[in-house]
Design a protein that fits this description.
Bound molecules: adenosine-5'-triphosphate, magnesium ion
Structural class: alpha+beta
Strand order of the largest sheet: 3-2-1-6-5-4
Distance between the termini: 96 Å
Number of strands: 13
Helix content: 40-55%
Shape: rod-shaped
Number of domains: 3
CATH topology of the largest domain: Heat Shock Protein 90
Number of helices: 12
Amino acid sequence: MKQAPLPTNEYQRLKALERYQILDTDPESAFDDLTALVAYICGTPIALVSLVDEHRQWFKSRVGLEAIETSRELAFCAHAICQPDKMLIVPNALEDERFATNPLVIGAPNIRFYAGAPLITPDGFALGTLCAIDHEPRELNAEKIAALQALSRQVISQLELRINITKLKKNISKRVQVEQNLRGTNQRLTQVLNKLRQTQVQLIQSEKMSSLGHLVAGIAHEINNPVNFIYANLSHLNSYVNDLLNLLTLYQKHYPNPNAEIQSQAQIVDVNFLLEDLPKILSSMKIGTERIQEIVLSLRNFSRLGESEKKLVDLHEKIENTLLILRHRLKATAKRPDILIIKEYGDIPQVECYAAQLNQVFMNILSNAIDAVEESVIKTQNPQPKIRIRTEIYRPNYVVMKIADNGAGIPEAIQARIFDPFFTSKPVGKGTGLGLSISYQIVVNKHGGTLKYKTKPDNGTEFWIEIPIKK
Ligand SMILES: Nc1ncnc2c1ncn2[C@@H]1O[C@H](COP(=O)(O)OP(=O)(O)OP(=O)(O)O)[C@@H](O)[C@H]1O
Ligand SMILES: [Mg+2]
């Protein structure tokens, strides 16, 4: 027996074989179809796709043979790959000095006939063969040889296909990975963007508040003095006017028939109407001035939020106080039933805060809720106006007070503006539009808390006042 020499490019050839990652893989129908075709076309009992490794030949596909590999020394294919441009055809192994004593010839599987078409890669390396083997000596005609060669090229095509599919799969999984990374980055970016937007809104809000605070403080101060002056003098004016009116009445009583000039003047000024109307005018002036004072007071509260000390406060007590003050507004009227107050007080500790200011927040938000449910009774026939007050610890170190009404909700169109100072949707003379902006200032800027709301059309609004337990 003569051993096959090593191909001259053996090192690169083995590298090429390794690139295909085919050795010791499971059978695949694409290769099995090809060996079946070879056996059929050449009429041989055995057909193999044999790949020649460093020390063995390994069969990717085999027809008519049990073994999955043999040593390289015994391999006919080891000879075939040394002449990549030709087929190796051995008509009768017993008559060929290279194979006559080969154990595969003298013993099982008793090879006599061998025809191997080298499997040549596109870059010219012979990886093994597609071969037909018989136990009898025989010949192959030119057509069958051509068929065997054509099929050997198909084996290479399949190998190339496998390599490309593997590459594609790797590519796809890489892409999926990249896509996942991108999605993650995208998500993080969106989060950052949202945070930035929130910060921006907060900055704008606090900037607005602080410049407005100065303006408001100035205006409130300017208005306060003259209004106080008017208010203080109104009572004097009232008593002077009363005195004059009394005097006039006395004159009328004791001089029922004054001279002609007085009579005509009395007619011109319509003394009786004057007597009747003057006190009314004075009283509406008083009401008007009081209203201005109220507004000035809230303006001053708005701009002078820094006053007074922080104290430990029982929030439930403060809420109760506020409800007490608002009691007259909760009672049934001709137009609606009592406003139901549902209290769901949780187990919350005392909180360090500016009590007077928080009172103001409760007052503002509860007043808004009352306005909202009242309006819903009129506009949407809400049968039972109600307000639910819930307190709880929603996250560590913070208490939250949720004030929910079953009013008509806040229309989307105005949602962006409700915290703006002087924004109001209420009729002239009813709201100043300062309630929420003052509350925002108190909760967010003064207490480091959050003031937010959830609202649904026709389903009411819930305001969240969340403040830290200790600062
Ligand atoms: N619970 C609520 N339901 C529906 N709308 C509300 C509610 N709370 C506030 N709003 C809307 O927000 C606007 C602003 O409220 P804000 O308390 O600042 O001003 P106001 O109530 O109109 O006037 P005031 O200064 O007298 O409080 C309101 O006019 C109203 O449109
Ligand atoms: Mg209000």
